[in-house]
Design brief:
5-stranded mixed β-sheet; alpha+beta; elongated
């Protein structure tokens, strides 16, 4: 018998048996043939290996044959060192470097460096396309695609079959099915019709697995021009990402997809970046060419805009279009003008000004650098600024007030409703922020000078004995602690208002923004502190003197230094005994000074005090040295 006729007879008999037994027996399990002979190689798989169309082998040719391919550690990160992944940065062209200098960006490590618009997206590190995108219904199945086929009911099967080079798939006990050129949406019906010729009472599910790879070419001004294996569902953007995007001299707005001699589409990346429009982003096919044209007119927009960058313009783009590409002005920008520095005027006028909105229709020239100015960086004239002050204490309506320019302290008190009956105007605390900053600077400078003097004194001192060395060490430790404590003190910015004790008005001092006025209540005590027997606050009575309150505290102790006593007034002024003494040091007693309500009297401790034994020892050494000198003179005379 003819072999072909024998095979047809066996097939027909098997088909009849399966049709007759479907209703009485369990489901028939279809199994994919397994390759048990290691030397037996599937013809389709061998052909796929020859043409390298498997998606899991994509770009194999590029890695071995392209000499300009960089190692992964050059443009991404080295996982062996544990580095963080970073985006690949394109080379900087001359205009980009020029615009960065004008923007004041000199640190190349700055993450917010001025760059071409869209460079962060298109030049970022991208993983190879594995073809995991969802296939649309109009996708045409072709050789190399993998089809996942599930059947249940009278037949049980879970198959993964590959479309061979002849465009067919092979289903066990069913035979081959031609699927090449079939739409993905029509694929289930095509396979169902073929399986129904052998089985009945079944259900079927069809999906696509790994998709075939296609070879495309990226040419022109690309970062890495060459040929690439991408998924059959890849688009222009996917291929651009594989090629690293446009180079420094490449265009973001003139990208062409060519298929043979036909121009399929022209793609503008700005449509995707600014509008999210991918309507021109076509799916590539085998042997397509993606050509990147040269960069067009470039301008930079820096300053107070939401997205400072370098923008590529098309014919007819204006200043308004550039502002729209940058996301518009920031919330604190000066919207009335723009600065422009033109290359042709660089050696003459330098920078010019474009008034807005009159200049929104102006077409920028290549190499222009536009600058948006801030409205808050420049300090306004004091005469034009309102005053925001805080009034607290003994006023009718304490709180914050906004006063016009040239307002005074008394104007602030009137805005707060005036003084109450308990107000102690003499003790008013008036604080100013600008004064506090100046005080802080001077205070820190004085501390540095003090620390330097102590360091000099420590290095020049010599210890003649162990006791003197211990004393010097202890003195150095105490000095260090003193400086540390002084550093914790922060100036308050208070201005002393030199008013009479019984005044009911304050000086007409002009206010500044941020001033604080605090009017305390009339105090009823006088404080005595320092080297006295009983420090504390004592009830004030009019007409008493300072010594009367010191006596109430028990008077100065034996270690006190009465000649350095001082009084801190409620208005912030200080009266000291040394201030009232003459140039010989006499008459420095402030005991007869009239005490005022709210005074604080401080009697300091005498610092450089010595005992009677120490003084006797020092005088003995003086007389001893004097006696040795007299004896030496007498010897020389003889």
């Amino acid at each position: 018998m003819d072999p072909a006729a024998l095979a047809q007879s066996i097939y027909s008999q098997e088909r009849d048996n399966s049709l007759n037994n479907n209703d009485t027996q369990g489901p028939i399990r279809l199994r994919q043939p397994t390759n048990t002979n290691p030397r037996s190689v599937d013809t389709d798989a061998r052909e796929r290996d020859e043409f390298d169309e498997r998606p899991d082998r994509e770009d194999r040719l590029d890695r071995s044959e392209r000499p300009d391919r960089r190692p992964a550690t050059d443009d991404a990160f080295d996982t062996r060192r544990g580095d963080r992944p970073r985006t690949r940065r394109a080379p900087v062209d001359e205009f980009e470097a020029y615009a960065r200098r004008l923007a004041g960006q000199t640190d190349e490590r700055d993450f917010n460096l001025l760059r071409r618009f869209g460079a962060e997206l298109i030049t970022g590190r991208s993983e190879p396309d594995r073809g995991s995108a969802l296939a649309p219904p109009d996708y045409l199945v072709g050789p190399g695609d993998q089809i996942q086929l599930v059947l249940w009911g009278s037949v049980d099967a879970d198959l993964r079959v590959q479309v061979d080079r002849s465009g067919r798939i092979s289903i066990p006990r069913v035979g081959s099915v031609t699927v090449a050129g079939v739409r993905y949406g029509d694929l289930p019906d095509v396979i169902r019709q073929r399986v129904a010729q052998v089985f009945r009472n079944f259900q079927l599910s069809v999906s696509l697995g790994q998709l075939r790879g296609v070879r495309v070419y990226v040419t022109g001004f690309a970062q890495r021009p060459g040929s690439y294996n991408v998924s059959s569902l890849s688009t222009i953007v996917g291929a651009l990402l594989r090629a690293g995007g446009p180079a420094a001299a490449g265009s973001f707005r003139d990208i062409q997809l060519r298929r043979g001699k036909q121009l399929v589409t022209s793609f503008d990346l700005y449509d995707l970046l600014l509008k999210g429009d991918r309507s021109a982003d076509r799916i590539v096919q085998a042997d397509d060419v993606i050509h990147i044209g040269p960069v067009g007119t470039q301008v930079a927009l820096i300053g107070s805009v939401n997205k400072p960058a370098i923008f590529e313009l098309k014919a007819g783009d204006t200043v308004a279009d550039v502002l729209a590409m940058a996301g518009g002005f920031t919330a604190v920008a000066d919207r009335s003008r723009l600065g422009v520095q033109r290359l042709e005027q660089r050696s003459t006028t330098g920078i010019a000004e474009l008034p807005l909105p009159q200049s929104q229709g102006v077409t920028p020239s290549g190499g222009d650098v536009l600058r948006a100015f801030s409205s808050v960086e420049a300090v306004l004239p004091v005469a034009l600024q309102n005053r925001r002050v805080r009034v607290e204490g003994e006023v009718a309506n304490p709180g914050e007030y906004v006063l016009p320019a040239q307002s005074t302290i008394n104007d602030a008190l009137q805005a707060a409703g005036g003084l109450t009956a308990y107000a102690y105007v003499f003790g008013t605390e008036f604080s100013r922020e600008s004064v506090r900053i100046t005080q802080q600077e001077n205070y820190e400078r004085a501390l540095r000078d003090l620390e330097t003097e102590f360091a000099k004194a420590t290095t020049t001192q010599r210890a003649l004995s162990a006791d003197e060395a211990a004393t010097q060490a202890a003195r150095g430790t105490a000095t260090t602690r003193l400086i540390e404590r002084l550093r914790t003190i922060k100036p308050s910015g208070r201005i002393v208002l030199q008013s009479p004790p019984e005044t009911r008005s304050l000086p007409d001092l002009a206010l500044e923004d941020g001033d604080r006025v605090y009017v305390p209540a009339r105090p009823t005590t006088v404080g005595i502190f320092g080297s006295v027997f009983n420090s504390g606050s004592y009830l004030y009575s009019q007409g008493r003197q300072v010594n009367d309150f010191v006596s109430l505290a028990g008077g100065p102790t034996r270690g006190a230094d009465p000649g350095s006593t001082f009084v801190l007034r409620a208005n912030g002024s200080v009266v000291s005994a040394r201030q009232r003494s003459n140039w010989l040091g006499f008459g420095g007693n402030i005991d007869r000074l009239e005490a005022l309500a709210g005074d604080t009297v401080f009697v300091p401790e005498e610092i450089n005090k010595t005992s009677w034994t120490q003084e006797l020892k020092e005088w003995s050494q003086i007389f001893y040295q004097f006696g040795l000198g007299a004896a030496a003179i007498r010897t020389l005379q003889r």
